[in-house]
Amino acid sequence: MTDIPRRAASRTAKLAALPLGFAGRTALGLGKRAVGIATDVISADIQQRTAEQLFSVLGQLKGGAMKFGQALSVFEAALPDEMAGPYRQALTKLQEAAPPMPVANVHKALAQQLGPDWRDNFAEFDDSPAAAASIGQVHRAVWKLPPARRNARPKTLAVAVKVQYPGAGDALISDLKQLSRLAGMFKIIQPGIDVKPLLAELRERVTEELDYEMEAETQRAFAAAFQNDPEIFVPRVVASAPQVLVTEWVDGDPLARVIADGTPEQRDEAGRLMAVLHFSAPQRAGLLHADPHPGNFRILPDGRLGVIDFGAVARLPGGHPEPIGRLVRLALDGEAQAVVDGLRDENFIKRDEEIDAEAVLEFLLPMIEPIAVERFRFSRSWLRSEATRLASPRSPAYQLSRKLNLPPSYLLIHRVTLGSIGVLCQLEAEAPYREILQKWLPGFAPVS
Question: With b meaning 16 or more CB within 10 Å and e meaning fewer, what string describes 87-111?
Fold first, then answer.
């Protein structure tokens, strides 16, 4: 058996073993219940053991398993404190680390993608990866720039070289198929997270994320929209091929470090910049950055937010859909029936579904609390309370949510917004979020 099939078999075996461990822990819980141990003790025990095994395995894998772990990791702020502690570090590790591929494979990929004389493009190339992601790893290098004029001294530029793992596409598809079997495990860990739509959405984006030339086009559009911006920095694209992408290197503190060790002022500013990026990019670039995990962001020495991955985006040529801002504004103004009518128009409520307008307003108001006031501090406790309110079968909010629909055209916007909120809660950032929406979200600003 060659190395690649052997690694694929090992990956599949690790993922396939997870449901067996889950079944064993469930049986253990039933046995404990039979001898009279309290149900809440059993549930906490099963949750913690399930989480520890799950994230341990995800942390060893690339492809869809790691990508799914990265997407899930932004929600760790919603986990109860007694559960989050043991594996919060493992979750964060998923955002920036993975086992590196052999140097010979890196060189082979570069020769295939950039040509046999690929080294001639570089003044320096570090064979040790600076970072690893779900479908590729990043190397630091120095690119030779063509001289501006004849006889001028050649210039160089520090660059990040992203090289796709061999077989990444097949691994991604295989992992996502395997992970679709694990929805029950994630329900045990955090009942408020609906895993199946997340997996379905990830599957739809496999082709885009595997094409680095498409990512290069997207990054160029972002870079043009934010050129010379005082708050957001997008590195320029230097060269691209289907499986190799060379971009300007970005120095700065990883957002994960700001989350872990930043001062309150640093965390507040990082949260404000994240919100500015989220709401301004659709208006300025016609694109929404759709992968808001901390590994994709840096705080530059001059205070700007650096964005370093554009593989996943939502294409919004008209900006954020206007109904979002308009319906949020109507909800803040207490216009219950107008909110219901608008939700029905957008197919969030089916035409034949009878629903109490005031109940819908009560359902929505806690969610939009961050923009009901001039300044709001996101927090883990706020996110946990919302997750509990929406996930408990005995909650009125849970019962009402069963009558609501999520139109496919809003699925990615919804998922990215939730992911961004998860990061803001990890930062515990306070900022004038309402002011940011008034500037950038169509339909939200009051009509004067």
Answer: bbebbbbbbbebebbeeeebeebbe
